[in-house]
Amino acid sequence: QAQLVESGGGSVQPGGSLKLSCTASTHIFMVTTMGWYRQAPGKQRELVATITSGGITNYADSVKGRFTISRDNAKNTMTLQINSLKPEDTAVYYCAANKQGERLSVPAWYDYWGQGTQVTVSS
Question: Helices in the chain by DSSP H: which ranges?
Fold first, then answer.
């Protein structure tokens, strides 16, 4: 049974928007820092944004001002609103859960991962 399930990816033109969602099992979501990572072809997985169980957010410099991470603890759902998309945002986007709330920029410290959702930005 999948612990994290993403949805909302797709293909858009530059400047467009997408909203990604991640639904988690309750036992994972409630006390966990959640994050979005992305991986482009031939590149390492990189952190996009994180949000603690209390709602504190952090963003990669490359997405600040364009991406917004949020969570609804009542629905065990995290979202990533992506605006002003650029071709370099093309990647598979993964949601992940970090139970310890530490080393948030290190993928190996995340305990659960979703299957990923493709975001493609091209004209």
Answer: 26-29
Token pair in block for residue 66: 């364009």
Q: Which two tokens stand for residue 94?
A: 């993964």
Residue 23: pLDDT band (50, 70, 90) is very high
Q: How many CB atoms lie within 10 A of CB 24?
A: 24
Nearest Cα neighbor of 46 from 32, 55, 33, 35 is 35
Cβ atoms of 81 and 73 closer than 8 Å = no
Cα–Cα distance, 106 to 24 (Å, whole number): 20
Q: Report residue 95's pLDDT band, with 50, 70 and 90 as the boundaries.
A: very high
pLDDT at 2: 61
